[in-house]
Design brief:
Transferase, Pyrimidine Nucleoside Phosphorylase, Chain A, domain 3, Aldehyde Oxidoreductase, domain 3, four-stranded mixed beta sheet, 17 helices, 13 strands
Chain lengths: 438, 438
C-alpha cells in the first residue's frame, strides 16, 4: 500500500464507472506483482470492473500487462506460419489432438503450451499423459527444436509464463470475480500472446457444458479476444461452437486420445471430425489461404493419413509410444469394468452436458481441485447425440469404470442425464458464429 | 478461505444485486474476524455492496454483527435517561462540549466514548486534551461511576469496542469502499449501540466541510441510522445540519474549548450556540419531553449557568483544571503568534469550509495521518460568516500560529478561502432537516 501507484484513486474511478488508462493498468499490475498493491485492493478493483464493465482498451492494456509479467516464447526463427489454437473448454473437447497434427501436415508450426483440466472440462496435457512414456515438460529450446522438425509440440506452460495471470486467477476464483468478459479474454489472450504464435484461432464454446450459456455472450467474448489479439499484432479469429452436448464420442483421457486416433485414421465421422476440419480450415485461412481452398486442403490431408503420420511423429518426439497411432487400445490403459447403457426406445431430446462431464469426473477422469490424481482409463463413450433415434436394446453409452459399483452409479446417472422423447428433434448447430473470418 | 461460510456464493449474490440474510451477515463477519474469510474476499463483497447498494435490513444486520464483535457498555444500572449524541464531523464542530453538560444539567446521563480527529475535522478527545491535566483513558467502571455522580463522562473508545468496525474501516480506507450509506451508518451506529445509551441523537453534517455534500444524501444517511437504531431498540433521531461554513468561531483545539466555555458562560451567541440548543432540545425530546418544553428548558439551563457548572464538575472529575470554566485563557495553552486578517470591504459570499479546516490543520491543529502530534494552541478564529458585512480595516479572522511564517501563510490562504462580494447574501439554513423528531 506504500505504492507510487495511486491505487485507491484508480479503484474509486472504476467503481464510479470510469476508465483506466493503459499506463495506469501497466503500473497497477507491476505494483501488484511487487506486493505494493495488495490482494484486497486488487479484489475491490476487479469487482468494480466486473460490475461496471471494462472497455476494450482496458482489456487490451490488461493483456499487455499480464504478458509483461513473465517470460515470452520467441518463435520468429521458425520458417512456416506459426499458429496457435485455443478452446475455452468443454466436454469431450479433444480437438487439439487432431487439429495440431492436421495443421502441421499443412505446413504450419504449432508450439502449444497447455494446461491441466479442472472441474468438468478436461485438459490436453491430461489426455496426452495417458499415452505411455509421453512427456509434457519440455524446455523452450526443446519445444522450438521439435516444432522445427515435426511442426508440432505440446508442452506444459511453466510458472514463468504469465505469472500475473496465475495470481489474478487464484484471486478471482475466491472473490466472485471470474465472470467478466474482459478478465476472461485478457487471461486467454495473454497466454496466447506469450506463446509467440503469429496466428491465433479460438474456439469459444457455448452451451450448458461451457461456462458461457448463451451465444450472444460467447460472440461478445470472441470479438473481445479477436480485438485484443489484433491490437497486439496477431492475426486472430474465433469460431463460436456448440457445447450443449458433448463434442467427441469419448469423454475421459485415454478415451479422448482413442477417438482422436480413430478420427485421424478416417474411421470416425460425426460432429467431432467436422469441428476439427472447421477449426483447421479457419486457422489456415488466418495464414492467408482462401476459405474454400483451406477446407479442401484439410479434408484431403486428413483423408490421406498425413495428419495421422504427423501425430505419430509428434508422440514419438515427446517420448510416447508411437504405435498409439496404429492401434490405440493396444497401448492406452483400459478400464477393468466396461458396460453398456441401453435406455430403451426413443429420440434423444437433450443431454445434460455439464453433468455428463461431471459424471466422467466422478468415475475418476477429472479433478475436483488442483493436485487431485486422475484415472486415465475411465470415462464414457457417448454413442448418440441430440436428434438421434435409439431402438430398444441399442446401447446409447458405454461406461469405462474402475469398479462394478461405479458402473452401476454411471448407468443410473445416465438415465437422468440423457433425455428421450417421441417427437423428432433437430440437432443443434455445430458452429454458431465466426468472428474475424470471411 | 476454509470457512464454513460459503463466502464466494455470498459475494456473487451481492455482485448480482441480491440480498444477504441476517444469519449470513453475522456468520460472515464472525468468519472474517476468525481469519476464515480473507481481506480480498471482504473487499470484493464490500465493493459489490457499494455499487449495488445494501438494503436497510442488511445494514441493520451488519450493525448487529459489528456490535457482536467486541465489548459493550451496560448503562442499565443508571437512574436517569441515558443519552448519546454523535456528529458525523465537521469544521469548528465542538458542540459536544456544550451539549454534554447541558443535557447532564437537564437530568440526562451521558457516557460518551469518543475518537481522535483525522483529516480536516477535529476530534472531541483532542479538544479536551488541551485542558491541562484532563484524562480520557477511563475504565468502564470509572466511566459509569462518573456518569452516576456528574451526569457526563467523555472517554476514549478502547480497542475492545467494536473491533470489527476498526478492521473493516482500515480495509475500506484503502479499497475505495468508504462511500456507502449502509457501511457508514452501520459503522456509526455500531459504536452508539455498543456505548449503551437508550437515546441517540445524531448530527448529520452536510456541505463542503462534511463528507456528504448534498442534503438529500445526508437525509438518506440520517434515515438509515435512525432505522438501525430503532431496529435495535434505541430511541434514535437525527438533525441534518449545515457544514457549508465552519460552525464555531474557533477552529483548533484550545480555541474550540474556549468558544465552548464562552457559550456556556452565555457570552457568545451565533450559529454555534443555536445548534447546541437545537441538539440538546432534540435529545430531550427523545427522552419524552415535548418539543417546545424541551427548547425552553435547555435555554433556561444554559442561561442560568447550570450547564457551565456541570462542565466545571466534569472537567474536575477527569483530572482537568476546573478553572478553565471560569477563565479559559488563563488555563489553556496560547499560541505565540496571534494576528488578525483584514480582507477589506464587502459582504462574505462564500467560505471554503473544508479548506479552512485543512488550513487549521496546516497550522498544526490537525493530523494528516494517525499518530501525528497536534499543537493544541494553534488555529483560527473566524469572526464572520456568509452574509456578514465586513468594513475596511475590520478583522474577519484571527490567526493563532506557532511562527510568523505560519501567520503569513494563513493570511494568504484566508484571502483565497473567504470570498467577498458587493451584493447582499442570505446565510444558509442552520438545520436542513429533522429525522425522527416532531
Amino acid at each position: 500500500m506504500a505504492s507510487a501507484v495511486p491505487v485507491t484513486e484508480l479503484i474509486v474511478r472504476k467503481r464510479d464507472g470510469g476508465e483506466l488508462r493503459r499506463e495506469e493498468i501497466l503500473d497497477l499490475i507491476a505494483a501488484y506483482l511487487a506486493d505494493e498493491v495488495d490482494d484486497a485492493q486488487m479484489a475491490a478493483l476487479l469487482m468494480a470492473g466486473v460490475i461496471r464493465g471494462f472497455t476494450t482498451d482496458e482489456a487490451v492494456a490488461l493483456t499487455e500487462a499480464l504478458v509483461a509479467s513473465g517470460d515470452t516464447i520467441d518463435l520468429s526463427a521458425l520458417a512456416g506460419p506459426t499458429v496457435d489454437k485455443h478452446s475455452t473448454g468443454g466436454v469431450g473437447d479433444g480437438t487439439s489432438l487432431v487439429v495440431g497434427p492436421l495443421l502441421a501436415a499443412a505446413g504450419c508450426q504449432l508450439a502449444k503450451l497447455s494446461g491441466r483440466g479442472l472441474g468438468h472440462t478436461g485438459g490436453t496435457l491430461d489426455k496426452l499423459d495417458s499415452i505411455p512414456g509421453f512427456r509434457v515438460d519440455l524446455t523452450p529450446e526443446q519445444l522450438e527444436a521439435q516444432v522445427q522438425t515435426v511442426g508440432l509440440a505440446i508442452a506444459a506452460a511453466t510458472a514463468e509464463l504469465v505469472p500475473a495471470d496465475k495470481r489474478l486467477y487464484a484471486l478471482r476464483d475466491v472473490t466472485g470475480t471470474v465472470a467478466s468478459p474482459a478478465l476472461i479474454a485478457s487471461s486467454v489472450m495473454s497466454k496466447k500472446l506469450a506463446g509467440g504464435a503469429a496466428h491465433v484461432l479460438l474456439d469459444v464454446k457455448v452451451g450448458d457444458g461451457a461456462f458461457l450459456p448463451d451465444p450472444a455472450s460467447a460472440v461478445d467474448l470472441a470479438q473481445l479476444c479477436v480485438s485484443i489479439g489484433e491490437s497486439h499484432g496477431r492475426r486472430t479469429a474465433a469460431l463460436v461452437t456448440d457445447m450443449s452436448q458433448p463434442l467427441a464420442d469419448g469423454i475421459g483421457n485415454a478415451l479422448e486420445v482413442a477417438v482422436a486416433v480413430d478420427t485421424l485414421q478416417g474411421r470416425r465421422g460425426g460432429r467431432f471430425r467436422e469441428l476439427c476440419l472447421e477449426l483447421s480450415a479457419g486457422a489456415l485461412q488466418l495464414t492467408g489461404v482462401q476459405a474454400a481452398a483451406a477446407r479442401t486442403q484439410v479434408e484431403e490431408l486428413l483423408d490421406a493419413g498425413a495428419a495421422l503420420d504427423r501425430f505419430r511423429a509428434f508422440v514419438a518426439a515427446q517420448g510416447g509410444d508411437p504405435t498409439v497411432a496404429d492401434d490405440p487400445w493396444q497401448v492406452l490403459p483400459a478400464a477393468p469394468v466396461i458396460g453398456d447403457w441401453t435406455p430403451g426406445d426413443g429420440v434423444v431430446s437433450a443431454i445434460a452436458c455439464r453433468r455428463i462431464g461431471e459424471l466422467a469426473g466422478r468415475l475418476g477422469a477429472g479433478r475436483r481441485r488442483q493436485g487431485d490424481r486422475i484415472d486415465p482409463a475411465v470415462g464414457l463413450e457417448l454413442l448418440v447425440r441430440v436428434g438421434d433415434r435409439v431402438d430398444d436394446g441399442q446401447p446409447a453409452a458405454r461406461v469405462h469404470a474402475r469398479t462394478e459399483d461405479d458402473l452401476a452409479m454411471a448407468r443410473a446417472a445416465l438415465a437422468e442425464l440423457v433425455e428421450l422423447g417421441d417427437a423428432p428433434v433437430d440437432p443443434p448447430p455445430l458452429v454458431h458464429d465466426r468472428v474475424g473470418l470471411e
